[in-house]
Amino acid sequence: MYARNLWYMAGWSRDFAPGALVPRLYLDERIVFYRKRDGTLVALEDRCVHRFAPLSLGCIEGDNLRCMYHGLLFSAEGTCIEIPGQDVIPAQARVRQYTLAERGGWVWIWFGDAPADPATIPDMLPVDAPERYSARTGALDYAAGHALVSANLLDFSHLAYVHRDSFNANEEWGRSRPKRTILPNGVQVDWWVRNQTMPEGMGVPVDEPVDQRAFYQYLTPGVLRLMPSTYPAGAAPASGEGPADVKPYIDDFNGQAVTPVSAGACRYFFSWITPACEGSEAMVDGAFAVASKAFAEDKHIIEAQQAVIDQTPPDRRMMPIQADTAITLFERMMKAATEPE
Question: What CATH number has the domain bearing residue 83?
Answer without folding.
Answer: 2.102.10.10
